Task: inverse folding
């Protein structure tokens, strides 16, 4: 029996978790670009399979149906959701990947959630612009904050640009921060950091995660904007195994130490930045049995860390 594309695969049905804001729920919508995938997939980001999409090109009608599915599936969760996170296997803010009509429908529903105060939108630096942010804010309530998510992953330019082939330039990152900073408290930024991604291991992975967080905090101070830091432990994806076959998955003790150091850096900076360890994904981990064993052991520590700032 074939899978109906409107209904997300089980791995895309994220369970609600708690973070520094309260109940956090991530919703994955379909990508509307050609092939249903991130336009950069296969050409960039040699460590990540998320951009592969769901194998189907979505349109507004399909994403509207998916939203209806989520409203039913999460009927007991959405009314208490304080932090809504939106994904689409690419950039939610790119009109080619999520049409304005689709995004408007999703944001319009988010605006009806009385407890929802924060909406994070997965994106890339090129689409964090005044035009896109104006559109987002026009469709949210005035007491809701929009937070574009920037997948910086490492501040090491040589690793990011050359080894990983993730073509994010600092000048463009800083332009995105500048654009977001024009909205004062209505817009913040979320920055993703990957702990233990190639080529970093052990103490080097911890140090690089801390350095990336320091760079994001420096930008937050320079542009006077709130920044939250999402730390994701590296795991081998299908494409990652092709490009980095010898590189191991992140050690979760290292990730926890990195997260602790990042939190101490936040405290030293005297800012209200939330630090979140992400342990849910879209099932691209190629070592699923190992992942399951890790989560059984570490989940209480991860959950405890993620709620410490409440």
Result:
């Amino acid at each position: 029996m074939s899978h109906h594309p409107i209904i997300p695969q089980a791995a895309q049905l994220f369970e609600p978790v708690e973070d520094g804001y309260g109940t956090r729920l991530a919703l994955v919508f379909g990508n509307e670009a050609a092939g249903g995938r991130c336009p950069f997939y296969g050409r960039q980001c040699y460590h990540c399979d998320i951009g592969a999409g769901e194998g189907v090109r979505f349109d507004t009608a399909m994403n509207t149906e998916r939203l209806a599915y989520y409203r039913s599936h999460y009927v007991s969760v959405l009314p208490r959701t304080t932090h809504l996170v939106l994904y689409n296997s690419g950039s939610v803010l790119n009109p080619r990947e999520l049409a304005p009509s689709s995004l408007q429908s999703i944001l319009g529903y988010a605006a009806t959630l009385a407890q929802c105060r924060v909406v994070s939108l997965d994106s890339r630096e090129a689409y964090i612009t005044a035009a896109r942010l104006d559109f987002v804010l026009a469709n949210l309530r005035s007491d809701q904050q929009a937070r574009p998510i920037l997948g910086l992953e490492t501040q090491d330019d040589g690793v990011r640009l050359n080894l990983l082939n993730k073509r994010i330039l600092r000048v463009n990152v800083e332009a995105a921060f500048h654009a977001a900073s024009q909205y004062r408290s209505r817009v913040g930024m979320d920055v993703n950091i990957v702990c233990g991604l190639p080529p970093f291991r052990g103490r080097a992975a911890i140090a690089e995660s801390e350095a990336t967080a320091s760079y994001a905090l420096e930008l937050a101070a320079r542009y006077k904007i709130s920044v939250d830091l999402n730390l994701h432990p590296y795991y081998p994806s299908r494409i990652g195994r092709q490009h980095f076959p010898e590189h191991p998955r992140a050690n979760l003790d290292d990730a926890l130490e990195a997260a602790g150091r990042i939190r101490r850096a936040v405290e030293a900076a005297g800012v209200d930045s939330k630090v979140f360890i992400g342990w849910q994904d879209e099932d691209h981990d190629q070592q699923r049995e190992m992942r399951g064993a890790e989560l059984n052991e570490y989940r209480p520590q991860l959950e405890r860390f993620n709620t410490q700032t409440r």
